[in-house]
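User: Hey, my collaborator sent me this sequence without any context and asked if I could get a structure. I don't really work with proteins. Can you help?
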Amino acid sequence: MMNQRNNICLKYIAISIALILPLITNAQTEGVVVDKIIAKVDNYIILKSDLEKAYLDYLSRGEFRGSTAKCNILEQLVVNKMLVAKAEIDSVEVADEEVRSNLGRRMEYMISQIGSREEIEAYYKKSMDQIEADLFDDIKEQMVIQRMQQDITADLKVSPAEVKRFFGKIPQDSLPFFSTEVTVGQIVKQPKAGTKQKEDVKKLMYEIRGRVLQGESFAALARQYSEDPGSAARGGELPFYKRGDLAPEFEATAMTLKEGELSMPIETQFGYHLIELQQKRGNTFKTRHILISPKPSSEDVIKARTYLDSLRTAIVNDSITFQAAAKEYSDDQLTSSNGGFFLDDNESNRVSVDQLDPTIFFTLDTMKIGSITKPLEFQQPDGSTAFRILYYKNRLAPHQANLKDDYQKIAAATLNNKRNKILSEWFDDARDEVYIDIDPEFDHCNLLEQ
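Assistant: No problem. I've predicted the 3D structure and written it out in structure-token form, which is a compact way to encode the shape of the chain:
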């Protein structure tokens, strides 16, 4: 079966934390699945509960509940275990420090989305340490699978001729239909706190540092003062990070500290930090910190709006292009490097209107092609206020896929198809190096057919 389907979904099943945890809880409390081993790949096993969890995830994403769905999912699980088993044979490893860093970022994101560490612990009836321990092996396995896939398909590219051949083989009645797409850019200006606000925060940070040095609990003070939503509830504790993961000023300070030493207040783009180094392991380090961000005054807010309005005037008068202004002056890191333009999953600046933020979508509805808005106030993900100007560069009406308008999308599909073929060939060779056994209950899936 593996050899028959070149278009098999070979990407590992990346179950998000938001889905993993409820499934773990359900498996423990509902007792729906009588567990047993349904597949073995060398020393690795797949349980029936693993299949059921993956199937529930599949359904939660709105996928089709077809007769072969569970077989396809089981095949994906077997493929994943083959990658892990072959990684062990080929000595492809992921260090535990990398896993902790990855897991830490996921947990911080989950805390920022759900609200607090306490809410998560109360819901799952486990401590955060227990939750992280439960997830560690799954995250490590996912990272090993990713690394194996990257190694197998490293430096893969497609030529224009390959893209054209791939597109030519798609039946006319099977060509995808794309909804309305737009090219839209933004320049964002965040109000910056003035000198007085910064000095007030620095003064408070020195006071907190003094209290720690006099014996007060760093963790208690972090819970009281820190504005980092991911770490404050944990007493300021951060996971292991490697060089390049955090703000340069933060890393530079952390790496010069001795274990247990407390830094002076330092400034990053996020605000002011007090940092305590807890552990250092080669190129990775573990810290805890207290973060306080200076808040802009009403005068600072007016200044940001006025600055952006002046920049818009310069663009309209052709003193500078929108793209150059975005790269030089926009405070939004995700779009500034693209000349301010939003990108889709294929790195194209033509974005489906379905993917746009609703506020931007409705604003475009009032604009003409080529126009630039006056500064618009909006709320950033962290709740702070900022201003932006929007540039409505172009619009493409709904249409059927074609090489002229959709080359970048078709090239991405061509590359994915080529990647799948290479992985399929790799699996055919690798299966001879690993032991695979499937429970007779799933003989109808024909997973072991050549």
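In plain terms: The chain has three domains: 17-156+407-445, 178-192+297-399, 195-292. You can pass these tokens on to your collaborator as they are.
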